[in-house]
Amino acid sequence: MPKDGTQHLEALRDGREIYINGELVDDVTTHRAFRNSTRSIASLYDFQAAGDNVERMTFASPATGDRVNLQWRLPTCYEELAKRRQAIEAWNEVHFGFMGRAPDHVASTLVGFMMGIDLLEAHDPNRAAALRDYFAFVRDNDHYVTYVIVNPQGDRSKATSDQGDEFHTVAIVDEDSEGIVVKGAKMLGTATAMCNEVLVASLMPLQEGEERYAVTFAVPMNAKGLKQMCRRSYEENAASVFDNPLSSRFDENDAILYFDEVKVPWERVFALRDPEVCRALFHTAPGHAMQNYQSMIRLMVKMRFLVGVARMVAETTGIVNFPQVREKLGQLTSETQLIEALVHGMEAGARHGGSYLAPTRNAVISALVLAQQLYPKLITTIRELAGGGLIMLPSDVRDFANPELADLIHKTQKSSVYSPEDRVKVLKLAWDAVGSEFGSRHTTYEMFYAAPNFMNQTMAFDSYDWDRAMGMVERMLASYDLQDSLKEATSAR
Ligand SMILES: Cc1cc2nc3c(=O)[nH]c(=O)nc-3n(C[C@H](O)[C@H](O)[C@H](O)COP(=O)(O)OP(=O)(O)OC[C@H]3O[C@@H](n4cnc5c(N)ncnc54)[C@H](O)[C@@H]3O)c2cc1C
């Protein structure tokens, strides 16, 4: 049987060092800030282990023959790519696309690294062997891996080594026959509280002399010296599931990770002191393409859900038949279909790199550019459609238990299609998706999880097939000239 939820929860009780609200967390699976989100992740593993889902969601590991999630498969043809996507889509439907760093994200990065392992082999066979063994280890244990690949936001106008503390960003401090020692911070460890392992990488440009910041490795979350400083928990501050149906269950916390002289054995070091190799795993190998192709599958599911929320809000408040409202909803469905079409386009236009098939870098980057712009627009449209109804709501579920307030709720929460309870339920869900602290974090997440928009626009510029586009324009320009046109114009008179 594949890994199930109980196995996942048990593995999280491993002495990891997590801080929140000024305190060390004893057990992430029972703590008020994390217990529901860890259960949501566990439910993904229960889903893959349930009945017919085993066939739909898993495949036999080529090393052990045991069933592991399809996210670990390196697709060799369109059918395998599509089957893998269908499994990712089914998993994302469990959390409606709200868990951006669920296990399928970084598994996709590692699949992309493995598709391009030849480049690492050519650079350093020992590091390539480490990556191969690590991939087999996380795949065969169906481990949940997340990543931290961005340097903490200090002063972005200054170099990595010029932030006032040489260990502001993770750097190599020591190296011996057993491995390396690293020290410093990385942003932002989404879901690191509830995963098994973290991949640490260096993607940001470095200057000459800053090679010690160029390192790619992985450690278990209970590695000695690894500290997680979590942001405020929306789950802990949710009044109830009725009040905050999303915050209360799908709040994958984000943490600053600090590596306080963490020892990393050589078998977990994949690249070091070479910024180009660190970046090549993402951008020459299809690490970046595979991880963000997964992101677009997730966004496709999330947008379908949010379009459903938009329509349900419009039905609740009786505006759905106004032509202007139907136009707005039609715009939203078109944008949702656009993301869906981009996912299918990435698959149809996927290219072989050696034996493996992956979406092209340009297709994925273009999708990211558009998605980062569409998401905040979608959220604004839902706000526009809902008006003050998102705010004109009882303070929390306990108001229903007070007979006087319950009577007032029945008098004031009117809808032609829903009972007062259901009107409140729909609008509280909509607020949690678009306006609560959780909803607001989601807008920031979708805008930034894959770098700021301007950076993706620049990458889209760099990776576009300009020869083809400009070549056509050159062919057109070459088909006429000034002298011929002048002659033609003069003789015509
Ligand atoms: C909710 C959330 C979850 C995240 N989860 C993860 C995770 O799991 N793992 C991970 O590794 N990272 C994660 N990140 C980090 C994410 O990758 C970064 O936020 C992203 O790369 C942008 O970096 P930054 O936030 O430092 O913004 P900055 O680089 O500081 O950019 C902020 C803004 O500054 C301006 N700006 C910056 N540089 C320039 C420039 N050169 N020229 C012009 N304008 C500029 C732009 O307006 C830009 O939008 C997460 C981020 C968020 C918000």
How would you describe what is shown here?
It is a single chain. The protein is α+β, with helices and mostly antiparallel strands and 493 residues long. It folds into two domains: 5-283, Butyryl-CoA Dehydrogenase, subunit A, domain 2 (Beta Barrel), CATH 2.40.110.10; 287-467, Butyryl-CoA Dehydrogenase, subunit A, domain 3. The chain contains 19 helices and 14 strands. The strands form four sheets. It has a six-stranded mixed β-sheet, with no helix packed on it. Strands 5-8-9-12 form a four-stranded mixed β-sheet. Helix 11 packs antiparallel against helix 12 (323-348), helix 11 packs parallel to helix 13 (361-386) and helix 12 runs antiparallel to helix 13 (361-386). The termini are far apart.
Helical content band: 40-55%
Question: Which CATH class of the largest domain?
Answer: Mainly Beta
Give the low-confidence spans. Answer: none
**Classification by helices and strands:** alpha+beta
Write the CATH homologous superfamily of the largest domain.
Answer: Butyryl-CoA Dehydrogenase, subunit A, domain 2
| Termini Cα gap | 85 Å
The bound ligands are: flavin-adenine dinucleotide
- The multimeric state of the shown protein is single chain
Computed Rg: 25 Å
Query: So what's the overall shape?
Result: globular
Number of β-strand runs: 14
Under CATH, the topology of the largest domain can be stated as Butyryl-CoA Dehydrogenase, subunit A, domain 2
